[in-house]
Amino acid sequence: DPQLALALLIAPVLFDAAYDLPPRTLRRNWLPLFSLAAIAVVLTTAAVATVSVTMAGLPLAAAVALGAIVAPPDAAAATAMLDRFDLPRQTYVILKGESLLNDAVALLIFSAAVAAAASPAFFTGALAELALAVPGGLILGYLLGRLYMVIGLKLAGTLGGTLLEFVATFGTWIIAERLHLSAILAIVVYAMVIARYMPERQTARHRIHSYSVWEAAVFLLNVLAFLLMGLQVRQIVLDLDPGRLNFAITLAAAVFVTVIGVRLAWVLLYNRVITFLAERGYTRQAVPTFATSLLAGWCGMRGLVTLATALALPIDFPDRDIILLSALAVVLGTLIVQGLTLGPLISVLKFEPDTSLDRNLTRARVALIDAALAELADGEDKSTRILRDVYTLEREITADGKHPREVSSLDKQRRSVIAAKRRKLAAMRRADEIDDDVFHMLEQELDWAELAVLPPGRDEIVES
User: Fold this and answer.
1) Is the pLDDT higher at 33 or at 189?
2) Is residue 323 classed as helix, strand or coil in its secondary structure?
3) What are the Cα distances from residue 162, in Å, to 90, 159, 188, 223?
4) Which residues contact residue 375 at a Cβ distance below 8 angstroms, ignoring those fewer than 6 apart?
5) Mean pLDDT over residues 320-341, rounded?
6) For the purposes of burial, counting CB atoms within 10 Å of the CB of 362, is it exposed (0-12), middle (13-18) or buried (19 or more)?
7) Mean pLDDT, the chain, as a whole number?
């Protein structure tokens, strides 16, 4: 069912992307993110639509739908490649954050195109409906996010709690759709509300379990999307006569070239424009180097969102078979051509090592150890003195930029110290002293440390 495809495949992916992209990252990098997520998507959609109308004579609504389907790059595909290389942190953050916004923009265009194809009178009421759908989706997402925190905390650590995470995510999308609100914006706000307030209220075991389940679910959804698309395309290829099949392959190749060319041209143009404005003092935004812009322009692999959106086309949509073939060609083409050449390109560009993440981690770790020492300051019993000496040594090791080692087995004291670290880490995040990527990395370290010192019989981790 095409309607099921968006809810089943898109809602969890949007939730996962929005969870990892805090609003302050949007504020700090609004210009490059807007450039990639909004302007690049609109330009790609328009270029692909023009090619489709000119070459294939597709109806305008179908051509725009195809453009929206292939426009948004997939962050998961990009980060899977980029994680292997030492890249400038700002570039990595922007490429990862781009996926959430470009998915939202592309899906909004796609929904409008599908509605326009179904109803020629769509545009007469489109603005009025959009005026309600956008703020309504934002409000609904916020309210459902707050409601989830109340119910989710009561079910934390149970099978029902795990099921609720998925039920609430799918439910947010379905409720928004039923109310004719923006399901995309509802999911985005819902995820951001939970990401902002929930981690401080969860237990370590619940958080680790939740993250693991979501990583597995998103991976399985990627597999499912490729499987379903492959099954549909196979049947389409078998049903098409040779002449139309050759025509569809030619169009798919043209769409693939257009998608790559438009993104690369726009990103390089943005680099020149922002450099020009910065030199004359018209903007304070960080100016990307030509190398980072070239990398960002080439890093445009498509993935799950493109596949799922193509599957969401109504069965009777004009030229659906050609659109599905083109979408799969763009996904496979970008993954193969850009994915395989990304490593050599990075090697040729020779980026300067970026140690800002390591410095921030070291600074935050020292602050957490200081919080632990403050927690132990008033204790004078033997175990407290021993633990205080251990943390003093650990601080010296950490200040030298090394990873702190596990040096104590005093479980009770360690649990109280970990709690103090958590309070300090949350306070640093609220005060905007550290970024969310630093927060989540240290949060994960504290989670595993807490599991290692749980009382016997509570899933403790035992050293061999």
Assistant:
1) 189
2) helix
3) 34, 5, 20, 21
4) 416, 417, 420
5) 90
6) middle
7) 82
How would you class 280 by CB atoms within 10 Å of its CB: exposed for 0-12, middle for 13-18, buried for 19 or more?
A: exposed
Token pair listed for 164: 């609720």
C-alpha 452/C-alpha 459 separation (Å) is 9
CA distance to 203, 205, 403, 416, 433, per residue, from 460 (Å)? 14, 11, 22, 16, 32
Taking the alpha carbons of 42, 169, 301, 95 in that order, is the dihedral positive or negative?
Answer: positive
CA–CA separation, 434 vs 426, rounded Å?
Answer: 10
Q: Which two tokens stand for residue 292?
A: 């980072």
Q: Can you state the angle between helices 60-70 and 40-56, rounded to 10 degrees?
A: 130
pLDDT tens-place string over residues 60-117: 989 999 999 999 888 667 666 776 777 777 777 787 777 767 887 888 888 888 888 7
**In contact, 406 and 452? CB cutoff 8 Å:** yes
The CA distance from 148 to 170, in Å, is 13
Distance in angstroms (rounded) separating the CA atoms of residues 429 and 18 = 18
Give residue 133's pLDDT: 80
Q: Residue 200 is which amino acid?
A: E
Nearest C-alpha neighbor of 303 from the set 71, 94, 91? 71
Amino acid identity of residue 414, one-letter, is R
Amino acid letter, residue 340: L
Tokens of 3: 């309607």
Q: What is the pTM of this model?
A: 0.74
